[in-house]
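Bench notes, afternoon.
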Amino acid sequence: EMNSFDVVVVAFNCTMSEDKDLIKALENAARKGIGLVAMKTQCGGAWGVDGYRKPKEQPKNQTAMLKWVLQHDFISTVIPAMETFDHIDEDFSVAYDLEYTPEEKRFLDDENIPYSLAFCRQCKKCMVTCPECVDIPALMRTHMYAYQYQNMDLLNLAQKEIEAGKGLYQCKFCEKCQAVCS
C-alpha cells in the first residue's frame, strides 16, 4: 500500500492453492507494478519421510509444481532449487510448455499432496492455538532441516534461535498437541 517496493520475493507453491487472500494480495501487488519472485516453488527437500507416502512410492512431481506457479500471470519469475544438472534440465523443461501432462494433473489433483509436502509457511498463526506458546514455526523449520533436507548444521542453527521456554521441551506438558495450522 505504501508503494515502497519494486520487487518482492515470496514463498508460493501448490500447497497455497486455497489461500485466496494470498493470491489476491499477489495479484494486487502485480497490478501495482511490483515484480513478484516466487521461491519455495517445489516445496523443497524430500517428502513423505514420515508422511502418508514414502519417498520411493511416488516422488514429488517437480515439473507439475513449477508449472503450477508459472501458470499464475502475476508471478514475474521463480527461484527453483537446483542441486544437480538433472534439476536444471528438469526446471528448464517447463519453459517450453506450461500445459500439464496427465501425470502432472493427477499429482496436483491429489487432495493429500499439500499435507504430505509438510510445508510450513511460517505465518505463526498456529502459535495462538498452543497452550504452552511453543514456537511451532521454528520447530517446523527444524523438522524440515532434519527430515527433508537432512542438514544437521541448519537444524542446529535453527534450534539455537528458539527462545527459551518456546521449544520442544514445553510440548511434554500436553498429552496431545492442540495446535492447529491455519
